[in-house]
Amino acid sequence: MKYDFDQIIDRKSTHSAKWSYLKKIYGDEEVLPMWVADMDFKSPNEVIKAMEERVRHGIFGYTGIPKSFYKSVSNWVKKRHGWNIDEEWIVFTPGVVTGLNLAVLSFSKKGDKIVLQPPIYPPFYKVIEKNGRKVLNNPLKFNGIRYIMDIDDLEKNIDEDTKILFLCSPHNPVGRVWDEEELKRLEKVCLEKEILVVSDEIHGDIIYSGNKHIPIASISDDMAMNTITLMAPSKTFNIAGLHTSVAIIPNEEIRKKYKETIDLIGANTTNIFGLVGLEAAYNYGEEWLDELLIYLEGNLKFLMDYIEKNIPEIKVVRPEGTFLIWLDFRELELSDEEIKDLMINKAKIGLNHGPTFGIGGSGFQRLNIGCPRSILEEGLSRIKNTINNL
Ligand SMILES: Cc1ncc(COP(=O)(O)O)c(C=O)c1O
């Protein structure tokens, strides 16, 4: 391997959301953080170098978006996901969650319903509720091993107040990489019932072997015209703090309205380093990403083997993509508060608490494997020692 993903780099001194506020969040500085969805790896050298070069210029005034920005997005999407997109479909957004808010503000009104497929990344709820819209839950079905969409339930519950569906593809936290058949079934319902699909594909580059990420908008022309796809290099290259992402919107009318909302709330201002970072990552980061994926797959295997051998009471929901692992603690027959207390106060490990992911989250915790293997091993040994002492 050319890149050293085993290297441990101190992040506590950088105001890292994951590492620098442990006392505030968990009440204990000794907690090992394995929660927020960023990674403990350095970004590709090419990204660092491009930003260094820009720093050396020394002037950081208001900055426009160069043509090359759009080109690097379209090249990346074609190369990694086989989707041909027009550069004019690409709209800059300062973050994917902002992109979700923009869609809600543009294409629904207060009181309208937006479909979620829980358990789901908690900000999805917040985006809907804080904007005065209502959540229509379409819970995923779980057979103890794998989650699938419940399309019949979706079809049954959509009504005329339902305007948007938030798709999480790949799905955080359950790690599904949706296959073509599922996406086609979803497409049929959404087109028939005129539901706009807002597809959050921020994890779309982190895919394990044997799986393929399919942008839902790429499955048909009709679906392309009915979808806002949100993508970003943030998870892929560990540059979430640069807050630079895109919405890909083939439908001209939808795009126009979306851009109007961007202007309305002043979300059209760029971040110099985000622009530079995105281009460098998409243009030169592929080799790094391919190695990262091998390393993450190694972490996943290490975790699966470790838990099976040492903590068999916990079941791993094997992810097909994402560096987030959904752990099933239900066999322990403890309450959510007891699991939380055990993890934070006994094991001293900071995970994401299952119930925050909504329906289906009870009895689960989410663990982030985007870290050097030695940190993963330390985290798992803390869980093992605690559970084995119960
Ligand atoms: C599914 C999903 N969407 C969006 C985000 C955050 O995106 P951003 O930081 O660009 O708002 C995350 C981060 O964890 C995520 O998991």
TrEMBL record:
<keyword id="KW-0808">Transferase</keyword>
<keyword id="KW-0663">Pyridoxal phosphate</keyword>
<protein>
    <recommendedName>
        <fullName>cysteine-S-conjugate beta-lyase</fullName>
        <ecNumber>4.4.1.13</ecNumber>
    </recommendedName>
</protein>
<dbReference type="InterPro" id="IPR015422">
    <property type="entry name" value="PyrdxlP-dep_Trfase_small"/>
</dbReference>
<dbReference type="GO" id="GO:0030170">
    <property type="term" value="F:pyridoxal phosphate binding"/>
</dbReference>
<keyword id="KW-0456">Lyase</keyword>
<dbReference type="GO" id="GO:0047804">
    <property type="term" value="F:cysteine-S-conjugate beta-lyase activity"/>
</dbReference>
<keyword id="KW-0032">Aminotransferase</keyword>
<dbReference type="InterPro" id="IPR051798">
    <property type="entry name" value="Class-II_PLP-Dep_Aminotrans"/>
</dbReference>
<comment type="similarity">
    <text>Belongs to the class-II pyridoxal-phosphate-dependent aminotransferase family. MalY/PatB cystathionine beta-lyase subfamily.</text>
</comment>
<dbReference type="Pfam" id="PF00155">
    <property type="entry name" value="Aminotran_1_2"/>
</dbReference>
<feature type="domain" description="Aminotransferase class I/classII large">
    <location>
        <begin position="37"/>
        <end position="383"/>
    </location>
</feature>
<dbReference type="InterPro" id="IPR015421">
    <property type="entry name" value="PyrdxlP-dep_Trfase_major"/>
</dbReference>
<dbReference type="InterPro" id="IPR004839">
    <property type="entry name" value="Aminotransferase_I/II_large"/>
</dbReference>
<dbReference type="InterPro" id="IPR027619">
    <property type="entry name" value="C-S_lyase_PatB-like"/>
</dbReference>
<dbReference type="GO" id="GO:0008483">
    <property type="term" value="F:transaminase activity"/>
</dbReference>
<dbReference type="InterPro" id="IPR015424">
    <property type="entry name" value="PyrdxlP-dep_Trfase"/>
</dbReference>
